Q: What sequence folds into this?
């Protein structure tokens, strides 16, 4: 009796812990939003939540299983959560068409420049570190 | 509720199409999924504001999902122990050039500031770029288009540009070259760049993932400071 009890426990405990981890992410979102609203920092509340979680993970030294169980599916299907925001593009077709040349020039030019600057900086510093 | 279910169906169809197409870039689930939703909205004669209200829960969930990005970032941050100075310096340089270069070039071309601020986070991972653009006073949906364009162009431009910089050439340059290539692609082309590195240089994909995570955070921070200053 007690044997089947101990065997069944982890199966119930794991979803329960995952639920708790989800509640933790939600709490971090609220905390981030509250901090941003309170201080007026122009950063997204989720970014504050991300940084708080990162500090927590560094202090803890590992990723709890329950947090992994929740974050993996959330991250895998992030695009589902973004579609409702991206669908607003229907409202901005005119704006995009009006500035299509700028969009194209920025997309190609700045992307190329970013590649060159990033790669050049890293290449130089790695070489210096090796010498 | 109905529109959330339709969005889920569109997403699943988009995923199926993406796999069927052999992960073709023009079949990215966020593009085809959005196209399907827009088609459904047009068919139903429903306006975007109604749809946005109906999918509030989905949009809100993107927040906790962004927070969960801390998990992979924490795992990859172990790479920083050995190469912290070169990697963080390259991050700072690349991130600043991308954000300031975009706002500067948009200014030269005479676009409205809200348009410039929408394009500015284009190298960041999409969920972060949407939030950062919105908070800075840009349009998230326009940011999404710029993020996709950058992700597609980045790996295309990286080949010739890195050859021109002679990355990976010279004595003992092979291992360093792979780090430079992977980190650069992750920084400039977010998830699409990481996917490309996974195909071509799987051994160094962690550097691409690290660069993507770091640049998401750095871009949001730089854009926040910039939007206050402008």
A:
């Amino acid at each position: 009796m007690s044997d089947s009890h101990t065997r069944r426990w982890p199966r119930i405990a794991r979803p329960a812990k995952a639920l708790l981890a989800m509640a933790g992410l939600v709490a971090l979102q609220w905390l981030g939003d509250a901090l941003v609203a309170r201080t007026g920092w122009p950063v997204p509340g989720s970014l504050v939540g991300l940084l708080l979680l990162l500090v927590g993970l560094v202090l803890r030294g590992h990723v709890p299983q329950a947090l992994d169980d929740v974050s993996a599916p959330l991250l895998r299907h992030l695009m589902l959560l973004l579609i409702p925001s991206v669908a607003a593009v229907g409202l901005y077709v005119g704006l995009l068409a009006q500035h299509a040349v700028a969009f194209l020039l920025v997309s190609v030019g700045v992307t190329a420049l970013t590649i060159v600057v990033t790669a050049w900086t890293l290449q130089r510093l790695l070489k210096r570190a090796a010498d | 509720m109905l529109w959330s279910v339709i969005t889920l169906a569109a997403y699943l169809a988009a995923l199926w199409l993406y796999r069927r197409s052999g992960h073709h870039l023009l079949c990215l689930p966020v593009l085809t999924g959005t196209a399907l939703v827009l088609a459904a909205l047009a068919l139903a004669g429903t306006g975007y504001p109604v749809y946005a209200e109906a999918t509030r829960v989905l949009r809100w969930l993107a927040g906790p999902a962004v927070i969960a990005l801390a998990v992979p970032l924490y795992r990859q941050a172990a790479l920083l122990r050995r190469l912290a100075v070169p990697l963080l310096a390259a991050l700072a340089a690349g991130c600043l050039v991308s954000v300031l270069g975009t706002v500067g070039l948009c200014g030269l071309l005479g676009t409205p500031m809200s348009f410039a601020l929408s394009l500015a986070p284009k190298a960041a991972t999409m969920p972060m770029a949407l939030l950062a653009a919105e908070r800075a006073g840009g349009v998230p949906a326009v940011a999404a288009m710029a993020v996709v364009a950058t992700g597609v162009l980045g790996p295309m431009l990286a080949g010739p540009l890195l050859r021109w910089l002679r990355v990976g050439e010279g004595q003992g340059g092979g291992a360093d070259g792979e780090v430079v290539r992977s980190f650069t692609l992750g920084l400039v082309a977010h998830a699409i760049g990481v996917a490309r590195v996974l195909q071509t240089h799987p051994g160094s994909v962690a550097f691409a993932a690290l660069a993507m995570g770091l640049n998401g955070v750095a871009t949001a921070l730089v854009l926040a400071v910039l939007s206050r200053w402008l």
Residues 2-39 of chain A form the longest helix (38 residues).
